[in-house]
Design a protein that fits this description.
single chain, alpha/beta, TIM Barrel, 8-stranded parallel beta barrel, iron-sulfur cluster binding, iron-sulfur
């Protein structure tokens, strides 16, 4: 197992265990199965285990497994405060203490503010005294590293990152999301501040394996490297020294063994020119099914009315590449939950975006088309309710 370091110089395995997707049985999580998988990963050197308050049964299962096998002190537990449910200082303590009980521990190695999407969410927590609370918990040893997980645009990510002395952060990042959400720019900014970055959705929930077009699978299979689609996706991430740890929601012994094998020799800077060319060709094949030829260059931005044009087109393309439901959920969390509204309906038709688009996309026409698909009436209502709840002051 390869390791990289946190801000204190302590080792973190480059492969982390994402505990959100434990297999469920008739009575909930299949503990026996999860235990075999976790212990297999542990024996291979994985020392970072990621869970959250809202993952059903996950914290309790992880706590039980670690305690029964007497390995709590040898691993790092990462879990998360459901900041979107917090309305008072007392609530922060309530959730944290419940998590300690579930995890059968008296300290958390890596504690995150969960699912941040806009900078005013951090402002709200600051108003509730979160900075003082963090200092108390770190002084007492109950929290050893503090961070946040993020789903939003690059600008808000950087604003949150700069707003506090974070020990680490967690972002969605993979070769198809290189310039969306926090993106490469956010990853580089974190590295400049010496903030370790944990990666979630490295294979977009398996879609960069299971839903790859046949042409892309044939291309990867033809490589003399002998890498699988999953291996290319993971090695692309680990090739970047700014990436500290990559989470994988492993739910079979075979998957654990395969990912640990890859993580045993994946080093930064090991990608060859041919490897990069294959990734670019795979991206091009995937993009053949896109509805809008947007490259995410952001030359169209900023929109004078705040429409997030690249994000809108990226998610619109997901409806053809993955599914409408997945795209609508992605749109709801990355665009719908921005601090300031960024919907296509705010467009006034000024055309400034089209003047700067290198692809000559008829942006004004296409954003209206995309909005109709991504925000049918039930989703408009749902997004409005979610905005009122998660972005409340």
């Amino acid at each position: 197992m390869e390791y990289r370091q946190n801000k204190k110089g302590e080792p973190i395995s480059i492969l982390g265990y994402g505990c959100m997707r434990f297999t469920s049985g008739p009575g909930g999580i299949d503990i026996a199965k999860a235990e075999k998988e976790i212990i297999t990963a542990y024996n291979a050197g994985v020392n970072y285990y990621d869970t959250a308050y809202i993952y059903p049964g996950s914290e309790a299962a992880l706590g039980e497994i670690l305690e029964r096998n007497h390995i709590r002190e040898n691993v790092n537990i990462a879990t998360k405060l459901p900041q979107y449910l917090v309305g008072s200082r007392n609530a922060i303590d309530k959730y944290f203490n419940e998590e300690l009980k579930r995890l059968r521990t008296d300290y958390i190695d890596y504690y995150l503010m969960h699912h941040m999407t806009a900078s005013n969410q951090w402002d709200k927590l600051v108003g509730l005294g979160i900075k003082e609370w963090i200092e108390e918990k770190k002084s007492s040893g109950q929290i050893r590293n503090i961070g946040f997980s993020y789903h939003g645009n690059t600008e808000d990510f950087i604003e949150i990152l700069d707003a506090y002395d974070w020990d680490f952060c967690q972002i969605q990042y993979n070769y198809m999301d290189e310039h969306s959400q926090a993106g490469l720019k956010g990853l580089k900014h974190a590295a400049e501040k010496n903030i370790p970055v944990v990666i979630m959705e490295p294979l977009r929930g398996g879609k960069l394996v299971n839903l790859l077009p046949p042409k892309a699978k044939v291309l990867i299979a033809s490589s003399p490297r002998g890498y699988t689609p999953a291996e290319y996706g993971l090695r692309w991430l680990w090739n970047q020294p700014e990436v500290t740890c990559v989470l994988s929601g492993m739910n079979s012994i075979q998957m654990v063994q395969e990912n640990c094998r890859i993580a045993s020799d994946a080093k930064a800077g090991s990608f060859s020119k041919d490897d990069f060319e294959i990734i670019e060709k795979v991206k091009a094949i995937i993009s053949e099914s896109e509805l809008v030829g947007c490259t995410g260059c952001r030359y169209c931005m900023p929109c004078p009315k705040g429409v997030d044009i690249p994000a809108l087109f990226r998610v619109y393309n997901m409806t053809a590449l993955e599914s409408k439901s997945a795209a609508r959920f992605e749109y709801a969390q990355t665009v719908g939950l921005k601090k300031e509204p960024a919907f296509a309906t705010q467009c006034i038709g000024c055309g400034k975006c089209e003047q700067h688009c290198p692809q000559s996309i008829p942006i004004r026409e296409k954003i209206k088309e995309a909005d109709k698909v991504l925000r049918p009436l039930p989703y408009k209502v749902g997004i409005n309710i979610a905005r009122a709840f998660m972005l409340r002051k």
